[in-house]
Amino acid sequence: MNYLMDLCKNSILQTALISWFAAQLIKVIIVLIIERRVDFTRITGSGGMPSSHSSFTVSLAAAIGFTDGFDSVAFALAAAFSLVVMYDASGVRRSAGQQAAILNRIVEKLGKEELSATGKKLKELLGHTPMEVFAGALLGLIIAIIQYA
Fold it and tell me: Less packed terminus of the chain by CB within 10 Å, N or C?
Protein backbone atom coordinates (compact mmCIF):
# COMPACT_ATOMS: atom_id res chain seq x y z
CA MET A 1 0.00 0.00 0.00
CA ASN A 2 2.93 2.34 0.64
CA TYR A 3 3.94 1.93 -3.00
CA LEU A 4 0.64 3.42 -4.12
CA MET A 5 1.02 6.35 -1.74
CA ASP A 6 4.60 6.92 -2.94
CA LEU A 7 3.40 6.85 -6.54
CA CYS A 8 0.72 9.44 -5.79
CA LYS A 9 3.33 11.73 -4.18
CA ASN A 10 5.74 11.48 -7.14
CA SER A 11 6.01 15.09 -8.34
CA ILE A 12 7.76 14.08 -11.57
CA LEU A 13 4.92 11.74 -12.52
CA GLN A 14 2.36 14.35 -11.45
CA THR A 15 3.99 16.89 -13.77
CA ALA A 16 3.87 14.47 -16.71
CA LEU A 17 0.22 13.57 -16.04
CA ILE A 18 -0.77 17.24 -15.71
CA SER A 19 0.95 17.92 -19.02
CA TRP A 20 -0.83 15.00 -20.72
CA PHE A 21 -4.21 16.11 -19.35
CA ALA A 22 -3.61 19.74 -20.40
CA ALA A 23 -2.84 18.64 -23.97
CA GLN A 24 -5.95 16.46 -24.12
CA LEU A 25 -8.12 19.25 -22.67
CA ILE A 26 -6.75 21.69 -25.26
CA LYS A 27 -7.87 19.24 -27.98
CA VAL A 28 -11.43 19.32 -26.60
CA ILE A 29 -11.34 23.13 -26.53
CA ILE A 30 -10.02 23.33 -30.10
CA VAL A 31 -12.85 21.08 -31.35
CA LEU A 32 -15.35 23.21 -29.40
CA ILE A 33 -14.04 26.42 -31.00
CA ILE A 34 -13.64 25.12 -34.56
CA GLU A 35 -16.55 22.69 -34.85
CA ARG A 36 -18.82 24.25 -32.21
CA ARG A 37 -19.42 20.91 -30.50
CA VAL A 38 -18.17 19.18 -27.38
CA ASP A 39 -16.22 16.02 -28.16
CA PHE A 40 -15.09 14.31 -24.95
CA THR A 41 -13.57 11.46 -26.98
CA ARG A 42 -10.66 13.85 -27.54
CA ILE A 43 -9.76 13.40 -23.84
CA THR A 44 -8.55 9.86 -24.51
CA GLY A 45 -8.06 9.97 -28.28
CA SER A 46 -4.75 10.08 -30.08
CA GLY A 47 -3.67 12.54 -32.75
CA GLY A 48 -4.53 16.20 -33.03
CA MET A 49 -3.17 19.48 -31.70
CA PRO A 50 -1.16 19.46 -29.46
CA SER A 51 0.52 16.06 -29.17
CA SER A 52 -0.14 14.74 -25.68
CA HIS A 53 2.55 12.09 -26.19
CA SER A 54 5.12 14.83 -26.79
CA SER A 55 3.78 16.90 -23.92
CA PHE A 56 3.91 13.95 -21.53
CA THR A 57 7.41 12.79 -22.43
CA VAL A 58 9.02 16.23 -22.63
CA SER A 59 7.54 17.29 -19.28
CA LEU A 60 8.76 14.00 -17.80
CA ALA A 61 12.29 14.59 -19.11
CA ALA A 62 12.32 18.23 -18.03
CA ALA A 63 11.01 17.40 -14.55
CA ILE A 64 13.74 14.78 -14.18
CA GLY A 65 16.29 17.35 -15.38
CA PHE A 66 15.09 19.90 -12.82
CA THR A 67 15.16 17.40 -9.95
CA ASP A 68 18.10 15.10 -10.76
CA GLY A 69 20.13 17.41 -12.96
CA PHE A 70 20.35 17.78 -16.71
CA ASP A 71 23.61 15.84 -16.62
CA SER A 72 22.02 12.79 -14.93
CA VAL A 73 21.56 9.37 -16.47
CA ALA A 74 17.83 9.55 -15.70
CA PHE A 75 17.49 12.77 -17.72
CA ALA A 76 19.47 11.30 -20.63
CA LEU A 77 17.17 8.25 -20.71
CA ALA A 78 14.02 10.37 -20.49
CA ALA A 79 15.24 12.77 -23.19
CA ALA A 80 16.10 9.87 -25.52
CA PHE A 81 12.68 8.34 -24.80
CA SER A 82 11.04 11.67 -25.67
CA LEU A 83 12.87 11.92 -28.98
CA VAL A 84 11.84 8.38 -29.95
CA VAL A 85 8.20 9.04 -29.05
CA MET A 86 8.11 12.31 -30.99
CA TYR A 87 9.80 10.79 -34.03
CA ASP A 88 7.33 7.91 -33.98
CA ALA A 89 4.33 10.22 -33.55
CA SER A 90 5.25 12.36 -36.54
CA GLY A 91 6.58 9.52 -38.67
CA VAL A 92 5.32 5.97 -38.37
CA ARG A 93 2.01 6.66 -36.63
CA ARG A 94 1.23 9.60 -38.92
CA SER A 95 1.85 7.41 -41.97
CA ALA A 96 -0.37 4.68 -40.52
CA GLY A 97 -3.16 7.24 -40.09
CA GLN A 98 -2.78 8.44 -43.66
CA GLN A 99 -2.89 4.85 -44.91
CA ALA A 100 -6.02 4.22 -42.82
CA ALA A 101 -7.71 7.21 -44.45
CA ILE A 102 -6.92 5.89 -47.93
CA LEU A 103 -8.12 2.39 -47.07
CA ASN A 104 -11.35 3.77 -45.59
CA ARG A 105 -12.02 5.69 -48.83
CA ILE A 106 -11.34 2.59 -50.93
CA VAL A 107 -13.73 0.47 -48.87
CA GLU A 108 -16.33 3.27 -48.96
CA LYS A 109 -16.10 3.64 -52.76
CA LEU A 110 -16.37 -0.10 -53.27
CA GLY A 111 -19.31 -0.20 -50.89
CA LYS A 112 -18.03 -3.41 -49.37
CA GLU A 113 -17.98 -3.25 -45.59
CA GLU A 114 -17.06 -6.96 -45.53
CA LEU A 115 -13.58 -5.93 -46.69
CA SER A 116 -13.03 -4.66 -43.18
CA ALA A 117 -12.26 -7.32 -40.58
CA THR A 118 -14.17 -5.44 -37.87
CA GLY A 119 -16.91 -3.85 -39.94
CA LYS A 120 -15.73 -0.45 -38.68
CA LYS A 121 -13.69 2.29 -40.29
CA LEU A 122 -9.99 2.25 -39.52
CA LYS A 123 -8.80 4.90 -37.08
CA GLU A 124 -7.34 7.74 -39.13
CA LEU A 125 -6.24 10.16 -36.41
CA LEU A 126 -3.19 8.30 -35.13
CA GLY A 127 -0.11 10.44 -35.55
CA HIS A 128 0.82 14.08 -35.59
CA THR A 129 2.14 16.74 -37.90
CA PRO A 130 5.53 18.15 -36.92
CA MET A 131 3.77 21.31 -35.68
CA GLU A 132 1.48 19.27 -33.39
CA VAL A 133 4.55 17.46 -32.00
CA PHE A 134 6.37 20.77 -31.48
CA ALA A 135 3.34 22.34 -29.76
CA GLY A 136 3.03 19.34 -27.44
CA ALA A 137 6.74 19.44 -26.60
CA LEU A 138 6.55 23.17 -25.90
CA LEU A 139 3.48 22.67 -23.68
CA GLY A 140 5.27 19.94 -21.73
CA LEU A 141 8.34 22.11 -21.26
CA ILE A 142 6.28 25.08 -20.09
CA ILE A 143 4.36 22.97 -17.57
CA ALA A 144 7.60 21.50 -16.18
CA ILE A 145 9.11 24.98 -15.89
CA ILE A 146 6.00 26.21 -14.04
CA GLN A 147 6.21 23.24 -11.67
CA TYR A 148 9.93 23.43 -10.95
CA ALA A 149 11.30 26.89 -11.71
Answer: N
